[in-house]
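Open question from group meeting: does this chain pack into something compact, or does most of it stay loose? Before anyone orders reagents, we agreed to write out a predicted structure and look at it together. Recording both the input and the output here so the notebook holds the full record.
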Amino acid sequence: MEYDRDKVDEVTLALLWLTRFKEAVSSRAWKGHDWETMDRLHSKEFISDPRGKQKSVLLTEEGEKQCKWLFNKYFASKP
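Structure tokens returned:
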């Protein structure tokens, strides 16, 4: 099935906002999403390389901003 990968990337990035947690001066998010999508988010420089033993990825500064903005876009309650 063909699908819009950019839309999937947006929604995945928004969902990373739900699983983010703070570490000292950075934010991380659990990486339990599709590997191809996570690789695309890495190539777009929103997250650190998802390959490796760690169960989470580092959100870049821009990645964290986009996560929050996209989460609000897709999931915020409308007044």
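Observations to bring back to the group:
The first strand starts at residue 20 and ends at 23.
The chain has one domain: 5-75.
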